[in-house]
């Protein structure tokens, strides 16, 4: 069989998370997975010492497949699997019992992990935590370091269509770069930020992130139309993410282009509002969505998971946001959730949050 396997042969069918709709199936080659996992492992410092990794992300997601399994195999690290599906108590037990030095997970997983650790106060001393799969706020990173006794936090950015990671923290990054960006562009990759007409925008200006290089998917399985939409003849991968490339080469996510809220002709990116709301002491987790509005087109709705034994009102949130956000960006509606709908890989599904409000709660304009 070895004689018939080539580096560019498809070896992996990776279903996308389906955070914006029906999942698609990008294809990856041996070459792409082998190289991305090796390079990601080095950025994660797996080559500097033996690490014991608590993997909270599932194997069927690129975070688990490429970042964790591939990285661990390349660099002889130990993988600890706390539970078949994410369970914060099982994760804490594993970190404590196995003396894990590294944790991998999504922002939502870390929110739940911190919440449980505040109650259990286990004697844990991991060195590094890696957050990916969705944007993390500076506030969350600070809470992670404080409550999980971390020396360092790292951020990664990527998508199934880029094999896994396209931006990632560098080993010697300072706290500002580690917590406020998704890291530095990956080795052997090209990136550019373009406007709606496809023209490159200046550094520091928001636009769509495009990626080109060895890790770009071979295409969507049995879906040539979507493949052609995603990757042009010039092989630039359209991520659908609104992104800022800083002067120093580090990147910041502004938000999903599809998630942008247009309120009375003004563009609002939910992540900016979420970052402010996350700083409220009674807020455990927040998602901001746009809901239909007869006059404005859309209104800003804050969907909140509240800290245990705490409460929050719309008036509280408006007071908290005053002076931190432009008035038109401040939420005009509040919805309280016990939990958010998630994909099996732990990503929050905003479109299902909107469906829940509109359908189950009988929201009308």
From TrEMBL:
This is Medium-chain acyl-CoA ligase ACSF2, mitochondrial. Gene3D superfamilies: 3.30.300.30, N-terminal domain of ligase-like. Pfam families: AMP-binding, AMP-binding_C. Its EC number is 6.2.1.2. Residues 272-347 form the AMP-binding enzyme C-terminal domain. GO terms for biological process: fatty acid metabolic process. The keyword Ligase applies. One of its GO terms (molecular function) is medium-chain fatty acid-CoA ligase activity. Acyl-CoA synthases catalyze the initial reaction in fatty acid metabolism, by forming a thioester with CoA. Has some preference toward medium-chain substrates. Plays a role in adipocyte differentiation. It comes from Dendroctonus ponderosae. It is an enzyme of class 6 (ligase). Residues 4-221 form the AMP-dependent synthetase/ligase domain. It catalyses: a medium-chain fatty acid + ATP + CoA = a medium-chain fatty acyl-CoA + AMP + diphosphate; octanoate + ATP + CoA = octanoyl-CoA + AMP + diphosphate. Keywords: Ligase. Belongs to the ATP-dependent AMP-binding enzyme family. InterPro entries: AMP-bd_C, AMP-bd_C_sf, AMP-binding_CS, AMP-dep_synth/lig_dom, ANL_N_sf.
